[in-house]
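Hi support team,

I've been running sequence recovery on a batch of backbones for a student project. Most finish fine, but this one hangs at about 90% for roughly twenty minutes before it completes. I'm not sure whether the input is malformed or the queue is just slow. I've pasted the structure tokens below so you can try to reproduce it. Let me know if you need the job ID as well.

Thanks,
M.K.
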């Protein structure tokens, strides 16, 4: 029979025994051990989402309207973008416009001319600093993609343009007879390459812009147009920009004096956007041999926002007439830099672009240097 004294001793010995851990404490300890192991092996890869919301830096496209359509004030560093459309629609111009803006911010850029069709003089007229732009011209898909991967790994390039996907011909196709069927070779090549270079670009914060062509679908049940190189690029891309150009006569810009076609209205539609709302559009005046007409763009945006009032053929700013007729008002904006910059600031503030530029370390379109001075009738 157990005495009262023995019961007391047994109770005291139980008090000295270690207490059982709660389920919550065990979970916390397991989590801490797992996080410590992950950090030791992979580095500081885990962090709250709130710390990375505004950590995406962007580069302006050179157009206020297009920056607004993209949602973050431009194209994001460390991401992949695809620009596609019919011939002469302005695909290369858009890629070069981003390069120009990046160069004006002191960034290093490269251009992979897989088509081997670059005109250095044209690029310089657009505003490219040709001495600072690295140009790669090799034939074949594997060499171009291998060079691209090596350039990304260096971590010194901020923007790389690949022009174009259609020219990235697999070596098996290049060496085969013309009549031999090489279906899906390029699609497999692009899929394999993107699996490697997409995370590498994110790690080095390199913006990749793939220029692509369109092809006609033979199937009556599929969309009429498709892009070359398979579907992998569309999946890996943060943004896809579809362009429409001079294929429609109504979009062509005619010089009233000579009657010649001097440009066209390029319609940019953001058909995919992981950093903003998709299917927004931006229409820009692309003047041949000169680039985007930012004066016409600012005038159009300022008029739609009632910053500049239009009464008949007269344009008013802050209650005063500043020009009669579009031709004259554009001349006024080109020659009066102070007025132009003042209107640009108001457009940026009203549209919310200023906030986007500040949040994403992006000054927006930089118009310094040789400003556009071409005709934009």
């Amino acid at each position: 029979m157990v005495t009262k004294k023995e019961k007391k001793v047994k109770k005291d010995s139980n008090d000295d025994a270690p207490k059982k851990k709660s389920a919550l404490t065990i979970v916390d300890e397991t989590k801490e051990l797992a996080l410590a192991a992950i950090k030791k092996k992979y580095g500081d890869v885990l962090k709250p989402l709130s710390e990375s919301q505004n950590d995406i830096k962007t580069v302006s496209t050179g157009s206020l309207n297009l920056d607004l359509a993209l949602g973050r004030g431009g194209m994001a560093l460390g991401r992949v973008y695809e620009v596609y459309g019919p011939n002469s629609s302005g695909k290369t111009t858009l890629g070069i416009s981003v390069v120009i803006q990046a160069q004006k911010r002191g960034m290093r850029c490269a251009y992979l001319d897989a088509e081997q069709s670059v005109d250095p003089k044209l690029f310089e007229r657009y505003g490219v600093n040709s001495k600072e732009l690295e140009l790669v011209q090799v034939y074949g898909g594997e060499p171009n993609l291998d060079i691209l991967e090596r350039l990304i790994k260096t971590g010194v390039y901020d923007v790389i343009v690949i022009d174009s996907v259609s020219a990235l011909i697999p070596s098996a196709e290049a060496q085969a007879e013309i009549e031999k069927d090489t279906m899906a070779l390029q699609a497999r090549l692009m899929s394999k390459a993107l699996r490697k270079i997409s995370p590498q670009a994110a790690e080095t914060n390199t913006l990749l812009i793939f220029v692509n062509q369109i092809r006609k679908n033979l199937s009556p049940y599929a969309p009429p147009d498709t892009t070359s190189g398979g579907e992998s690029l569309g999946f890996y891309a943060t943004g896809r920009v579809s362009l429409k150009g001079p294929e429609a006569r109504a979009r062509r810009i005619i010089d009233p004096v000579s009657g010649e076609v001097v440009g066209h209205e390029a319609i940019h539609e953001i058909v995919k956007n992981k950093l903003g709302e998709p299917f927004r559009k931006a229409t820009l005046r692309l003047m041949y041999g000169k680039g985007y007409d930012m004066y016409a763009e600012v005038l159009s945006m300022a008029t739609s926002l009632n910053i500049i009032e239009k009464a008949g053929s007269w344009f008013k700013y802050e209650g005063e007439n500043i020009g009669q007729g579009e031709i004259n008002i554009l001349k006024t904006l080109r020659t009066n830099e102070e007025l132009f910059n003042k209107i640009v600031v108001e457009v940026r503030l009203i549209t919310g672009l200023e906030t986007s530029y500040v949040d994403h370390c992006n000054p927006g379109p930089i118009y310094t240097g040789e400003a556009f001075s071409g005709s934009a009738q």
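--
Follow-up from support: It reproduced on our side and the slowdown came from queue contention, not your input. The chain has 13 helices and 17 strands. No action needed from you.
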